[in-house]
Design brief:
homodimer; 311 residues; alpha+beta; 60s Ribosomal Protein L30, Chain: A; Phosphoribosyl-aminoimidazole Synthetase, Chain A, domain 2; four-stranded mixed beta sheet
Chain lengths: 311, 311
């Protein structure tokens, strides 16, 4: 199968100035842009864990695999350079068709994103087996002005988020737009101390940023932007919409820790197409906190998806 | 599980000058060495396809996953920079233990190689599921003097190989040494027009080099170095040892196309610890050829493992 598939891929993948050599040799050659650092990130998505091939269009699964990696690049303020895609294809895809047809659909789901974000698919490895579909994507990027780390938050920084949260299972987990353009725009114009993307849950990823920075975060629950999908899910399952916003995950929005002056500018200027909202502040004591009814800080247990634990 | 595993990994993975930032953030940061190109390659290995977790030590599977990628870097004459490792771990590993324990063993199998070849593990993604183990490794490298491509062979070039071929299933497919040091040594001192590593079968990979170069290869069967493992397998299964050498694959030796003058020097000097053997010549007509009994060229069907086809 691989030969046909590689031929298809070679024909189908657009040429790109990043690629001195793409698919077809033992490895791909990437032209390094300016900047001393190459950023690399990997995400592996599995059938019936990250999507259900019985129910979704495989293009959606392919798109999601690349988009999740691009979201990680965005969280580093990195400009995409290229991606490599490895596949373990089921010999008998659940909704019929051949493994080749499945592979084609997966890549077709990736290509519009790859073009939109100038992130050519540089290569990978294609295999068949009698197991379920596994998609492994590794994305490379470059940073011209230094990457945003999780660990840079300072006491007194304000916590900003892009977009809204919760209910991603209603569709957003497939069609989210990785915040690459937003991150690059902000990194060129504003001081950002730390960042993370929300893949596993707003509070869980916020707690990770806080922990990496050796700080805590005082979260203002009333400020958390709740998506309409979270409100719809709340109607369906009776759980508060805020709970969905705090823990559903796969929002793929950015959490930013910025100094107060930059925060004021950002809230005044709202320079992005997506809204920026202040949801809290970096404080000295470690952990995630909210103000209790009596005005005292109480800890908030982070909610979200922990990889490798049964949902 | 992931938190513990990440903590283990962070403690266990050695610091390395290539890594400005390794595991623990959204992506890793690699210091780019001199040279304009970053080389990237990916291999995905699956349980019961590339190894049998029921029978092997998981360290062997981990080692193989990284070593196969390093062999691809060697085939490009690239100096390893870093690797990222993504895992889909079975909830119940076939030989018992937890997914974490399996992950630890896999990485422990990689670490000696990572150190030996200065290829730090920069990150990745760890997941559990109810499917079988999948290991996806992406390796990055740099080329100071330009990469060896498959497509550079010229008519009149001689075909050289490192090492011996055949019978890798008897052990070599786990304990092979990727020819990184050999490739770097040769690329600095000798003119090499084209190269490929033998993963799927000597004749199959040789045919790929020929096809990528738009040339043919006249193979001298009597010159093919046959491993002792191939001879042992021949005794076991009654097939000629030469057949094993031509098609077994997973030898992870290098095939090189070099101009005649460089070939003479290489054979005279034998500059590597592993023997270099001349096995054929690049000719004009496409395809893989041998000299028949009457002195006329006859085509030789390439043998080897084609990914995605049942073995």
């Amino acid at each position: 199968m691989e030969l046909q598939w590689i031929d298809w891929l070679r024909d189908r993948l657009p040429r790109h100035p990043h690629l001195r050599l793409g698919i077809g040799d033992d490895a791909a050659l990437l032209r390094m842009a300016a900047g001393p650092d190459c950023v690399v990130t990997s995400d592996m998505l599995m059938d019936e864990v990250d999507f259900r091939l019985e129910e979704c269009d495989p293009r959606q699964a392919g798109r999601k695999a690349l988009a999740a990696n691009l979201s990680d690049l965005a969280a580093m303020a990195a400009r995409p350079l290229a991606a490599v895609v490895s596949l373990a294809l089921p010999n008998r895809p659940p909704r019929g068709g051949s493994p080749s047809e499945l592979a084609v659909a997966l890549v077709e789901g990736m290509l519009p994103l790859a073009e939109q974000f100038a992130c050519p698919i540089a290569g990978g490895d294609t295999n068949c087996w009698d197991g379920r579909l596994v998609i492994s994507v590794t994305a490379l990027g470059t940073t011209a002005r230094g990457a945003w780390l999780r660990s840079g938050a300072q006491t007194g920084d304000e916590i900003l988020v892009t977009g809204q949260f919760g209910g991603s299972l209603l569709g957003r987990h497939f069609d989210f737009c990785p915040r690459v353009a937003e991150a690059l725009y902000l990194s060129e114009r504003y001081e950002v101390h730390a960042a993370i993307d929300v893949s596993d849950g707003l509070t869980l990823d916020l707690a990770r940023l806080a922990a990496a920075s050796g700080r805590g975060v005082l979260l203002e629950l009333a400020q958390v932007p709740i998506s309409s999908a979270a409100r719809r899910m709340a109607v369906q399952d009776g759980r508060p919409a805020l709970d969905h916003a705090l823990g559903d995950g796969e929002d793929f929005e950015l959490i930013l820790a910025v100094p107060p002056a930059a925060c004021r500018r950002l809230l005044d200027e709202q320079p992005l197409d997506v809204p920026l909202t202040r949801i809290g502040r970096v404080i000295e004591p470690a952990g995630l906190w909210i103000n209790g009814p009596d005005g005292q800080r109480v800890p908030l247990p982070p909610q979200g998806y922990v990889h490798g634990q049964p949902p």
